[in-house]
Amino acid sequence: MRIKDYYKNKPVFSLEIFPPKPGSPLDGVFATIDALSVLRPDFISVTYGAAGGSRFYTVEIADTIKNKYGIEALAHLTCINSTKEEVAEILGRLQKAKIENILALRGDRPADQSTIPPTTDFQYASDLIKFIKTKADFCIGAACYPEVHIEAEDAMADLHNLKRKVETGADFLITQLFLDNSIFYAFREKLDKLAIGVPVAAGIMPVLNKKQIERITSLCGASIPPKFRRILDRYENSPEALKEAGIAYATEQIIDLLSSGVDGIHLYTMNRPEVAKTIFGQISGIRKHLKAET
Ligand code: FAD
């Protein structure tokens, strides 16, 4: 099924997982899918390594999600450093596995190439979307950035680029992680003003480790609000306490977003099914109530 159709009965609940490093066995990620499947998400997405690393496994893992577990799969696909032939080959493999949904991304520039202009066939995610559309009829998602993409000229330029991406063919959007819901609500208002009307799922990451979230936010440009900074500072040396607080914080964000009528919650699981299970357990009544309403 095409993911854009799930958003007709919002809210949509989705989970994100990542493949193992090249050469590592797939058993761990298959166990993760097995554990996550009991949560009955509307779809599970699988990331794709921009720099070649964990590319190969994405299709195989998406195939397992869709064809073994009967859960809709969203295969991420990046285009930076890829040729049209390479992308066409992946599209062929996805079609063969009957995967209908792609999250079309540019990908991050590898650190050592950051000052070199891309030497590939694609410059932006919109180029990838255009290319996919010439090849096959996939349902296409794209990324968006409530706190502005780190390389964007400014917030308005980023929004106009996003609009172009949607006009090129993105059917739905998933946000970069954010830790302050008011930033998401302000972003939604800006999208409405620009008539960007596709569904927008909120990307939520339960934070379990101070160093990790500091590294991620420094790379992606998301901010750490004072309320969460206090949690990190207070519990940084107690993994158990930080885990509990991180899960509670993410759950609170989700409850607020659901009450405000968000199109979807996309949980960055970091391949930690027990964390996703705890969060989904906390909102099971809310989820039941919202499903009954649709
Ligand atoms: P684009 O939409 O191409 O935007 C990149 C930058 O270019 C932005 O600053 C934008 O404003 C600007 N821009 C766009 N079009 C134009 C134009 N025509 N002219 C000038 N400027 C333009 N990375 C991975 O490697 N693998 C993954 O699986 C992965 N999954 C992700 C999932 C989600 C939900 C999100 C939010 C991010 C994910 N990323 C992933 C990270 C993503 O690849 C990076 O954020 C990357 O830097 C930008 O990708 P994009 O598709 O948003 O790029």
Write a structural description.
This protein has 294 residues and is of the alpha/beta class. The protein has one domain (3-293): TIM Barrel (Alpha-Beta Barrel), CATH 3.20.20. It is 48% helix and 14% strand. Strand 4, helix 5 and strand 5 (139-144) form a beta-alpha-beta unit. Helix 9 runs antiparallel to helix 10. The longest helix has 21 residues, at 239-259. The protein is globular, with a radius of gyration of 18 Å. It starts with a helix and ends with a helix. Bound molecules: flavin-adenine dinucleotide. One of its GO terms (biological process) is methionine biosynthetic process. Keywords: Amino-acid biosynthesis, FAD, Flavoprotein, Methionine biosynthesis, NAD, Oxidoreductase. It holds the Pfam family MTHFR.
> What characteristic shape results from the CA principal axes?
globular
CATH class: Alpha Beta
Estimate the strand proportion.
5-15%
Number of separate strands: 8
Write out the strand line-up for the largest beta sheet, numbering strands in chain order. Answer: 1-2-3-4-5-6-7-8
Task: Give me the CATH architecture, please.
Answer: Alpha-Beta Barrel
Global mean pLDDT = 95
Alpha-beta content class: alpha/beta
Task: List the ions, cofactors and other small molecules found in this model.
Answer: flavin-adenine dinucleotide
Structurally, the number of domains stands at 1
Largest sheet: 8 strands, parallel, barrel
State Rg.
18 Å
Tally of separate helices: 12
